[in-house]
Amino acid sequence: MNRSTIAAIALTATAGLALTACGGAKPTPGDKQGANADAYAPVTVGKGFTTKGGNINVLMSSDFQTLDPGNSNYVQTANVGQLYYRTLVMAKETAGQPPKMVPDLATDLGKASKDGLTWTYTLKKGLKFEDGSPITSKDIKYGVERTYARDVYTQAPQELDSALADDSYKGPYHGGDFKGIDTPDDQTVVFHLKQPYAEFPALVSRSNTAPVPKAKDTKLDYTNHPLSSGPYKIKSYDRGRSMKLVRNSNWDPATDPNRSALPDTFTFSLSTAQATISQQLLANSDPTAITLDSNGGLQASDAAKLNDPKVKKRTAAGLLGCTDVLNLNTETIKDKDVRKAMALAIDRAAVQVQYGGARFGKIAQSYINPAQVGYVPQHTDLDPAGKPKLDEAKKLIKGKNVPKKLVYGYADTNARYKNVGTVLQQNLKQLGIDLQLRPIPAANYYTVLAGDQMPDIARSGWCGGADSGSVRTTIDPNVGPSLDGKTYGFSNIPRYHDAKIAKAMYELRGTNGTSEELGKKWATLYDQAMQDYPLVPLVRSYTSSVVGSKVRNAQMGYFFGAIDLSTVGAEH
Amino acid sequence: MTSFLMRRFVAMIVLLFVISFVTFTLFQLGPADPAAAACGQECTPQRIAEARVALGMDKPFLTQYFTYMSGLFSSHMVGAPGSQALCSWPCLGKSFQTNEDVTTIIARALPYTLSVACGAVVLWTVAGVGLGLLAALRKGRFTDKLIVGGASVGVSLPIPVTGLLLLLLFVSTLDLLPFTTNEIASPFGAAGPGGWFLNYLLPWVALAVLFSAQYIRVTRSNMLETLGEDFMRTARSKGLSRRSIVFRHGARAGLTPVVTMLGLDIGSLLGGAVLTETIFSVPGVGFTAVHAAQSGDLPVTMAITMMAAFFIIVANVLVDIAYAVIDPRVRVA
Amino acid sequence: MTTPEDAPMLAIRDLRVSFPTDDGVVHAVNGMDLTLARGETVGIVGESGSGKTVTSQALMGLLKDTTASVTGEILLDGQDLNTLTETQMRAYRGKKIAMIFQDPLSAMHPFYPVGAQIAEAYRVHNNVSKKAAAQVAVDMLGRVGIPDPKRRYAAYPHEFSGGMRQRAMIAMALVCEPELLIADEPTTALDVTVQAQILDLLNELQEETGTSVILVTHDLGVVAEVCHQVVVMYGGVCVEQATVANLFDDPRHPYTQGLLASMPSLARRSERLSPIPGFPPSLLALPDGCLFADRCPKTHLVPDGACATHRPTLTGVDGHPSRCHLETLQPTREVA
């Protein structure tokens, strides 16, 4: 992408609505697919830096929701968690690529039984908590047990739990012993599964398997000082204001090749306004500063400043695993040709502008991408540049019973989603559809989409699910059937249910095999499902994050959507 | 005067209870369900039910209200059956996010808000009343026109605009002042009064630009009205000095409406200067409220709402009392 | 400065006051003359806009430091007040000249006790303790006929009745025993029974203290009751000056004649009032000739249409001058 293109994008981004009203941004001449792909290549600042020492100052607009690995569904917590807790397997970030599963506390990625129903892990030797006590299999088990106490932990991660046997377990506080995990000795953890699950290593990379010693469990207050098993420990934590991490002397780097743990300390400023964060970073007022805020704390209006060569040099960037789609309610818009016509009529390039332009997202052709295990090429009639295909759309609906009135629901906190609705309104008018915009309280947004109030059209986003490196954990939740296979699944927002595809997916869930071979089957079924247009891919996130001039090895996490804390370092 | 105070006080208590009930009801019946907010995108009905238990929202509405209000009078155990914990008096519940006592969160935020408020109030009162008086005394002259012109610019500058401009100019560009830090909550800390002053100077100025513009207008128009009053002519006829006429006779009457304004403004400012705190990264009450509201942290949002209401009501009562002290005609009522 | 005993205490000579406004210059007073002897009461009567209030304000120096232009002489005991600065004038206000106003409620500060306001007036010119000043104020309240003055000292203006308030105003004005008291419509805002009481009080106090009084009013009845001398103002000038008796018996200026004719009296209650037709001249553009010419029923008596072209001067005999061309035509008027 050349200078003028970026300047044009900056302009369209700031012009926002006005341009939308004229039908969206025009594609820049000469901006070919190849050039585009290049533009979205990951950029890492100060790659290959290995010097230890110094401090990294993390600016955040608000405190962490929680630091308790047993009560966290948040990427920010997962990112900082790499510094103070370890899990059996680690999802190791590489900018632009889905995280790679690597052994962490365990010696390998786990040994599955032949039937795929048990997975066995052996802990490395010499692992210790920050207080010097040894990390045992019991601590891993207890950590998982806590996540079943959902009447205590509203944010307990559930991906692993839903795969394990002993479903009715109520947690360690009044549920007794958990049958889903055995700990035959202090080094061995055996998981019992309901069904084979090829991506199981990804499930044990989740914070569920962070070790928690039972004696140190302070329940909801554990968030104030989770006992460290990682390279850093919490030295001070002033809620809502600041936190300081220092080296954990009981962490043995020999057991941990994944974390370079370069800085001596991390400081977190937890109440810096977003506008101030972007100002501070752009101005390089603290050369050791980074941020974990989404979009690097940047606003669409900052896009122009990112072209300043001095700033560009300090900007880490990369595609994320997160893709936004438009769900078409298949229960209210029953005709797949009508859905396809709607999909073709939508000006996705104009939608991209609402997301801040190309700087903030790439027009997506599918929910899944080639970097994921099990990907097979996907077919779609959507224009790769995001332009609407009106003639084709109109041809499709000829003689069809097209709904006169449809409702688009949007989360009410972000003007962007309302603006997307305005774009859709104009696009669908071309098909004679009158689109109404209905705000939905952001806090309950997904609950509403799952319930009776699901509108005809609604946006949703997905970042890859339990295993962002595998196609399955995107496909199954988003278009898959319910647990019994008889209807659509709970988070299947378009309520897509094709009996044949659903049956195949249901069977695939219980099939034993490798992630690769099963993934290909999932991807093939998904491609079939997508010919019915239950959803329209919109934009895949591309995030830039400006860092201070002394920050090195700053890579954009595909899963974290921010600078990966496990590898970042500082010149000092 | 005593019965006047008693009546105001009783009315205040009643009003606070009404407000607590209304606030509680609004949050309960509001569109945002904290339980649903707590479990996110893959939230099954079962998970919502579990979250409801965890948040103590499974009980009947009135029970919840009485439990909540009882915390104002005594310590009690809060939390789900699996995680009961003592919430010490005065208990406003525990944060859904951090599990801290809400009172702890507010107590932590309040010094920041006080820091922002006290400096801003002093600055805008001195500037607003001073310039307003000056404009009134120089009515129609250049000074007056300059002040009135400046005020109409100031009054139309919203805090986000002045705030960002000040940040860009004094911090980013000229590098004269540091970015506001959350390490300085009061003038008594390690940074000392000087550090505190510099840290809060820009928020004060941003607030003062807006507020003093309003105070200039009110002061000027009220002073002009007062200067034309018969009793001002009387004061002059007595042979009083100009200073005595303007301040002892004029300002006393002309600034009464300013006292009302000031009281109410201080009251609402203590409930959190949301925009100012957000822009300048001051983790005060307003800042806390915004984050709590965004993350569906009901106990914190509610406590701050009630506290803001409390401050405004108390400010109203204080203004009433101040009025009675200043203007003897009011005391009869 | 020494003043001969027989010289008038107050002499106003060719007083002119004008105010610049957006519409032009308003000529409020246009050559006012007045003399007042010690211990005498003079009434200034006229319609609203005739310049009587502006004249009294000029006397108090209240027009200093404003946009008004004041020329001419205001000689008080031989000292020209018009040449004094605001600061110098302050020593006169309250001390030598005091003033009471039409509406005592608005003229008193609503936030201070009545007694304190009187004591303040005393302390401005007398270097005494607050306590001593308070005692003076209490005494003064008693002198103006306020019952239980000690208790009423701490009361606020709104707690007084209208009459009591005006008594208190008088107390405030007289507390420094001024040589001259200007009473600007002191009874207009009061109801009729109280009016008489206040006028009686003024009379009494004047006799007691020997203070000269200028009573500004539009009410000839009030003038008849308390004044020795009367000055009739019209268009910012004095059109006639006479003793009360002379004025009522022998009004010389056609305007005075009109005024008297329009005055309701017990004797002529049943008759129709005959107000003077027309309006006072615009103070923005004064006519060249007599200011009353437009409304005057007697212009035909003056030859050559002089009323419209020449402004008459104040002339007359027997200390009863009138500003009318007819005066100069009848130099040998008989003494009544």
3D structure, described in words:
The complex is a heterotrimer of chains A (572), B (333) and C (336). Chain A has 16 helices and 19 strands. With 572 residues, chain A is an alpha+beta fold. Chain A has a 6-stranded mixed sheet. Chain A starts with a helix and ends with a strand. Chain C is built from 13 helices and 10 strands. A 6-stranded mixed sheet of chain C has the order 6-7-8-3-9-10, with helices on both faces. In chain C, strands 2-1-4-5 form a 4-stranded antiparallel sheet, with helices on one face. In chain C, strand 4 and strand 5 form a beta hairpin. In chain C, helix 4 (114-125) packs across helix 5, helix 4 packs parallel to helix 7 (162-174) and helix 7 runs parallel beside helix 8 (192-209). Chain C is globular, with a radius of gyration of 21 Å. The interface between A and B is large, with 47 and 59 residues.
Layout of strands and helices, then pairs:
The complex is a heterotrimer of chains A (572), B (333) and C (336).
Chain A: H1 3-15, H2 17-21, H3 33-39, E1 55-59, H4 75-84, E2 89-94, E3 97-103, E4 111-112, E5 118-122, H5 137-146, E6 181-182, E7 188-192, H6 200-203, E8 232-238, E9 242-247, E10 265-269, H7 274-283, E11 289-291, H8 309-312, E12 315-328, H9 336-345, H10 348-354, E13 361-363, H11 390-396, E14 405-411, H12 415-429, E15 434-440, H13 445-450, E16 457-462, H14 472-479, H15 499-509, H16 515-530, E17 535-546, E18 551-552, E19 569-570
Parallel strand pairs in A: 1-10, 1-11, 14-15, 14-16
Antiparallel strand pairs in A: 2-3, 4-5, 5-7, 6-7, 8-9, 9-10, 12-16, 12-17, 13-17, 18-19
Helix pairs in contact in A: 9-11, 14-16, 15-16
Chain B: H1 2-29, H2 34-39, H3 45-54, H4 61-70, E1 76-78, E2 85-87, H5 102-137, H6 142-155, H7 159-173, H8 192-227, H9 230-237, H10 242-254, H11 256-270, H12 274-279, H13 285-294, H14 298-326
Antiparallel strand pairs in B: 1-2
Helix pairs in contact in B: 1-14, 5-6, 5-8, 5-11, 5-13, 5-14, 6-8, 7-8, 8-10, 9-10, 11-14, 13-14
Chain C: E1 10-21, E2 24-36, E3 41-45, H1 52-60, E4 69-76, E5 79-80, H2 86-90, E6 97-100, H3 104-107, H4 114-125, H5 130-143, H6 149-152, H7 162-174, E7 180-184, H8 192-209, E8 212-217, H9 220-226, E9 229-234, E10 237-243, H10 244-249, H11 254-262, H12 306-309, H13 325-329
Parallel strand pairs in C: 3-8, 3-9, 6-7, 7-8
Antiparallel strand pairs in C: 1-2, 1-4, 4-5, 9-10
Helix pairs in contact in C: 4-5, 4-7, 5-7, 7-8
Keywords (chain B): Cell membrane, Membrane, Transmembrane, Transmembrane helix, Transport
Membrane topology (chain B): Multi-pass membrane protein
InterPro entries (chain B): BPD_transp_1_N, MetI-like, MetI-like_sf
